[in-house]
Queue: 2 jobs
Job 1
Amino acid sequence: MNYRHAYHAGNFADVVKHLALVALLSHLKKKDKGFRVIDTHAGRGLYDLAGDEAARTGEAAQGIARLRALIPHDGYPESLKTYLDLVQSAGEGRYPGSPLIAARLLRPQDRLIAIEKHAEEFAVLSSVLSPYRTATAEQADGYARLAALLPPPERRGLVLIDPPYEAPDEFARVGAAVGGALRRFATGIYLIWFPVKSKSEVDRFCGEIVAAGAAKALRIDTEVEAKANIKEKIGDKERLARAGIIVVNPPYGFADEMNTAFSIVATPLAARTELAWLAGES
Ligand code: SAM
């Protein structure tokens, strides 16, 4: 295993993904009926921004750290206020990952299954989630477990698919996983993260998600410090400058909520965001 999210936690891509996660969870909480969250690639749940990994890339410094000066007020969309509160309550120099964000927002009738394959990450994840009775951490392959866990007994839910994209076939695996998942649970909400290293590869991937049966799908791309070259060299590492999410079955009002939130965070992040309907609405 090479990928460690600790190098990237709290970067611009995490901010966008986690803002979307908070907005989708808030929507699901509008009804009393419980729902299930399945986080197929959960990571460790809590990151130390003062640690070596974060310091080596400086990604959090150019991401979440730039939002510290924002003071949430009534003019902010609820999702942005909630996200900023969650980050602040994780503690000074710490950043909450997707499973901790979900665990913090669930009600007693809701459930979270957070899946992480790698032992070291899983050990931390288990301890981070241990205070939350509604959350379960599993050490397993997220794709295999997703197929087994759908449809959820509640018939309401959100699936977050956020792999490291280290393997050359990761886009294909995500496409296949979403296809299988939609056949089992067509009404679920899916939040899928992806890096943009090759525009044609990502466009093809988005086409596959629609072809897999997504009747309604929104794509949101974010680019930081727009450059002709999409990658920037940091030592021997390449820093990602463009990333995206696809939301399948986004709830009504989600695109507007995201637009408003991005209009507030775009300037401090020096980011540009583009929303496009891949299927439905527009
Ligand atoms: N979702 C997390 C968040 O937003 O805080 C970040 C996840 S990180 C991008 C991807 C994680 O997937 C890594 O912790 C990696 O160890 C884990 N992973 C890699 N392959 C996996 C697999 N097949 N099943 C489950 N987890 C996997």
Job 2
Amino acid sequence: MSKQDTETETGVVAAENLDRVEAPVTWRTYAMCVFASFGGIFFGYDSGYIGGVQGMDYFIKMISGPDADKLLPWQSSLIVSILSAGTFCGALIAGDLADYFGRRFTIILGSAVFIVGVALQTASAGLALLVVGRTVAGLGVGFVSAIIILYMSEIAPKKVRGAIVSGYQFCITIGLLLAACVSYGTENLDNSGSYRIPIGLQMLWALILGVGLMFLPESPRYFIKKGKVEEARKALGRVRGQDPNSHHIEAELNEIRANHEYEKRMTPETGYIGSWLLCFSGSVGLASSNVRKTLLGISLQMMQQWTGVNFVFYYSTIFLKGTGAVSDPFLMSLIFTLVNVLSTPLSFWLVERFGRRSMLLWGAIGMTVCEFIVAVIGVTVGFNHTHVVDEVTIANNISAVNAQIAFIAIYIFFFATTWGPGAWVLIGEIFPLSIRSRGVALSTASNWFWNFIIGYITPYLVGTEYANMQSSVFFLWGALCAVCIVYAYFLVPETKGLTLEQVDQMLDEVSPRKSAAWKPTTTFANMEEKQTTA
Ligand code: BGC
């Protein structure tokens, strides 16, 4: 047997040992992660309530004047997209805060900032203060949405990490649903309660999250990054529900620490600007380079937005009104939101059974097919053949439009079970600790940036006085989803069942297409030991 064979075998044993010693997953661990995923509720709620509020008579008249029956496209664009502009900036700043003050503190701070933003929006009686309030609240959502992913990925045990981060997506969908229900309940009020109730209620989510997090431990990986090994040990003991001196904790801690030491050795000392530039270091051609991981995170979130999902969540009420086939568009968009909630739990199983890569690939295929069907029915017999009589749109073929609506619901099913959770799970996993907080922050900022762009351009794409694409807008989303298929096939790696440290190794050693078959052959602790004895 050659030296290399012996080394590899020792490595395999070391890697297997690490697997064996990983602490069993306890209810306590689940409970902590599930609580953290609560952050998704106000991400979802905050994006969700605005769709309903924009259709409210009282609100329209307050913003656009007593004779208006809908918001002007620029007003609608501004109100929807300004939140994402705030979140974009919030997510970017949050990465630094999380490295400096800790993950937990940043999330608590985000909740506080969010409460201030919501208070301003609730107090508003016109466009200006509403826009300021949405920007401030956006900053808070930016902090929370970026750092919750980081925190959850860092505390979750590897076996269930995908499922647990998908729980965050589930909470986003519940947030969207709650927002739709509350707006549905208040839409007919003829006073400021119609929009103030759905807006003001959000403070509750931030309070629950902020106060709850005060009782959860900080991420052990943050302490390791700060060189506080004993604090890391205690924190890991708490999240795993184990004695901090047990062999489970010792082995896991050793591996996190050895990986960090290894990365530090490989990473040059840099100043503040240099540490940002580190996210873009290396060569784009290498899967293991930082720049490649950063671009992967940024593009994953971009592609998630390109699927067009927020077209449905932000504008479906207005869109469905225009089809002339739906008597209660509010109720119909509520149904889309319900499909989103009910389908997401399937992803908890899919993500650990089939893995991230297959999930994104099949999800993109499913969404592409549905979107093209919606678009083709539209141009042949459906929505694009409606006509206007006395300013009211009438559908020529109600069953065709209904079929389109059904395929939009199936499309949502595919999104909710695949790209919705998948993009968040992956960005929590692909970055090494040295750039993790910034990498996740940049990727989350990309989500909000594209969210902003789509929120901004959609009224112009479908507005009757502008491009008036009607359901042909689904040709656009379908084409973008087709790009997602190619993207997932060539660029998305399989990270299922690996520790965050093993993901690092895997990206160093194989291309995304071969990643599903990769098995760890050594541990960082083992490599470090060899180095010291050499
Ligand atoms: C996306 C949001 C979207 C939501 C719908 C999230 O993963 O990032 O933009 O509104 O899913 O469930």
